[in-house]
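Justification of resources, computational component.

The compute hours requested in this renewal are based largely on the per-chain cost of generating structure records like the one below. Each record pairs the submitted sequence with a full structure-token output. That output is archived, and it is also reused by downstream analysis tasks.
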Amino acid sequence: MSILNNSSDSLNYQIIAFKAPHEYITDANENVTSYNFKLEGSYKDLEKILFSIENNYSLGRLVHTNFYLETDYRTTIKKLHVNAIIRHIKEKSD
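The structure output for this chain reads:
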């Protein structure tokens, strides 16, 4: 996901985790790939990157987002995180 790496500096967010893609084939002979990732930043910056991912149809469809605050108990600083899942579907070629 180069779009996440390219825009992380300009939009001021961090990529915390990017899990390995999950792939499976449906009964309708479609190859489905899901990408699960976690970002940290301000609400506006996270919203901007999610909006750009959602409007870039070649990446897939944004199917899940979960915003939550996480507290660092050593520094008592709260940080906003988002878990997101992008699902990309293409027909399987035989």
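The longest strand covers residues 77-91. The domain at 2-91 is CATH 3.30.70.60 (Alpha-Beta Plaits).
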